[in-house]
Amino acid sequence: MTVAIAAPPLGPLLHDLVRNHRPRRETGSVPANIPFLADVPFNKFGIAVATTSGQVFSSGDADVPFSIQSISKVFTLAMALQGDTTGRLWSRVLREPSGTPFNSLVQLEAEHGIPRNPFINAGALVVTDHLMEGTYDAAAWVLRFLTAQAGISGPYIDEAAAASELSGSSRNLALAHFLKDFGNLKRPAEAVVENYVRHCSIMMTCVELAKAGLFLAGEGRGTAGPVLSPSDAKRVGSIMLTCGMYDAAGEFAYRVGLPGKSGVGGGILVIVPGECSICVWSPRLDGKGNSLAGTAALADLSDRTGWSVF
Ligand code: GLN
């Protein structure tokens, strides 16, 4: 990781990114299976950077809460690894890019109920099931974890968004029932999907998410102390790089060169190892379910700062 000597100061740079990347007209799509999220104004755009030295920079709508959706999968994986000293989780989910859409059923059937990675929906359902061995209300546990890492009591579960998604969850239920049939789900499929949808429906701001992700940039040490061992923090970052953007992981690595995790709420969390954690949010999505303006802004940011793992 290198920081270009000529990188401009971060505050003005973030303001400039907001000026250049905030959408001026409506392009892109809204998540098909969560009608509630379609109402978020298309021209929202926020960005925040939390540094390992304890500083936070932000601009635009960085203090507006949004639905974190699949960004929760980074944190549920970290939580599962925290208690998994024997590697049990890794007998139930692989660590390979899927090359398929995040909610695809085909691969799960062909590969006998072992999801390709923890960031596609099937893998995240297995991780949620794993967390439910610790407490049945895994979503509340995820919320407590995120609140502690963000260092403020801002995060909350948007129950209306969760209900909106649950009413159209046929595909996630199908994945859960497939997993159950293959013996890779311990709790009832309905209960796992409900917990999964509720932790996806956590509302956070860019500033809160950037702070919550700091442990991934800081060798496992977050705002509230150690979260993961340095090796596990490195591994979560590696899975973000290879699997964090689903079937656009290669394109994102090409354009941004950093480990990232997106959500269909329009947020993207990105890690610059040793330096900082970045969260960008803009709600309209590309065809793979990743924020259009968010990805463009991150490509610009990495070009202008030299921040990259390559
Ligand atoms: N809750 C969403 C779903 O299961 C999360 C998807 C995403 O953010 N990619 O479809």
Structure description:
- The protein is α+β, with helices and mostly antiparallel strands and 310 residues long.
- The chain is 42% helix and 12% strand.
- The chain has a single domain, classed as 3-Layer(aba) Sandwich (Beta-lactamase).
- It has 13 helices and ten strands.
- The strands form three sheets. Strands 2-1-10-9-8 form a five-stranded antiparallel β-sheet, with helices on both faces. A three-stranded antiparallel β-sheet has the order 3-5-4.
- A hairpin with a 4-residue loop joins strand 1 and strand 2.
- Residues 1-6 have low confidence and may be disordered.
- The protein binds glutamine.
Task: Name the features.
single chain; 310 residues; Beta-lactamase; five-stranded antiparallel sheet; three-stranded antiparallel sheet; 10 strands; 12% strand; globular
Q: Give the helix/strand class.
A: alpha+beta
Small molecules held by this entry: glutamine
Whole-number average pLDDT? 95
CATH superfamily: DD-peptidase/beta-lactamase superfamily
Give Rg in angstroms. Answer: 18 Å
| Quaternary structure annotation | single chain
Report on the biggest sheet: 5 strands, antiparallel
CATH class: Alpha Beta
Total strands: 10
Question: What is the CATH topology classification name?
Answer: Beta-lactamase
Low-confidence stretches: 1-6
Architecture (CATH level 2) name: 3-Layer(aba) Sandwich
Distance between the termini: 7 Å
